């Protein structure tokens, strides 16, 4: 089989810059591509890897003063066949498992994706996201135990209106770069931070609710 023309992420990093690979996994049409697109908006340079119809999107950023060059990998729909080519997993530093909060079957399939991920990358940090919460925001009151069971940070997100998208990708990049420089402890840190984050947003929601009550019917415009 032909060699995949992909970067070597295990090579020593350039001066002052950590290079990481982040992948999204999950059923077809859960919104993996849209989430990456949403996060990157116009600041990305897609680069086609011809052999396996994979695209990678490079993103340069800083995490705690450290320069990080992130390649987000995206598929051309191979997930339709319920598995990914090994090159997709190769040298990945973090994974976001995505399901569609409006389609239960995509949640039920998470264990299959997770199992395949672990066959190739037993140790990398993994995050979990329920996407499309804009369709029915009431899903956010439901519990999705898969993430908790595997000790993963969990995010309700919407690629359409942007809810939690930046937060989730920033956490994924943080996890990926920490994993690369020191492959321990990062998940504990993120879990801890996320607990505080949930408390904060909970408080904010309460405050917003109070404001709305006072403002008698100020509906937010639909996006
Ligand atoms: N309402 C809504 N639709 C979404 C959202 N994210 C993706 N979609 C739609 O879901 C479909 C599949 O998205 P895509 O990113 O191609 O899914 P992928 O196959 O997982 O990469 C597209 O029609 C998107 O417009 C979202 O957050 N909300
Ligand atoms: Mg896609």
From TrEMBL:
Residues 202-214 have a biased composition (Basic and acidic residues). Belongs to the small GTPase superfamily. Rab family. This is Rab-like protein 2A. One of its GO terms (molecular function) is GTPase activity. The keyword Nucleotide-binding applies. Keywords: Nucleotide-binding. Residues 197-223 are annotated as: Disordered.
């Amino acid at each position: 089989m032909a060699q995949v023309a992909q970067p070597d992420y295990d090579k020593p990093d350039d001066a002052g810059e950590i290079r990481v690979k982040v992948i999204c996994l999950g059923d077809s049409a859960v919104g993996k591509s849209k989430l990456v697109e949403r996060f990157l908006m116009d600041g990305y340079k897609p680069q086609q890897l011809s052999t396996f119809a994979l695209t990678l999107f490079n993103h340069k950023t800083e995490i705690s003063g450290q320069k990080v060059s992130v390649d987000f990998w995206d598929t051309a729909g191979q997930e339709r066949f319920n598995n990914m080519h090994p090159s997709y997993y190769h040298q990945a530093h973090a994974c976001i498992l995505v399901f569609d909060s409006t389609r239960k079957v995509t949640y039920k399939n998470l264990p299959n994706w997770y199992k395949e991920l672990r066959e190739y990358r037993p140790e990398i940090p993994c995050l979990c996201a329920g996407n499309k919460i804009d369709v029915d925001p009431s899903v956010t009151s439901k519990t999705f135990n898969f993430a908790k069971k595997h000790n993963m940070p969990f995010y309700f997100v919407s690629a359409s209106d942007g809810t939690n998208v930046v937060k989730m990708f920033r956490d994924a990049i943080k996890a990926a770069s920490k994993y690369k420089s020191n492959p321990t402890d990062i998940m504990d840190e993120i879990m801890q931070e996320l607990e505080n984050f949930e408390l904060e947003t909970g408080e904010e929601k309460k405050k917003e609710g109070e404001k709305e009550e006072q403002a008698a019917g100020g509906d937010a415009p639909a996006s």
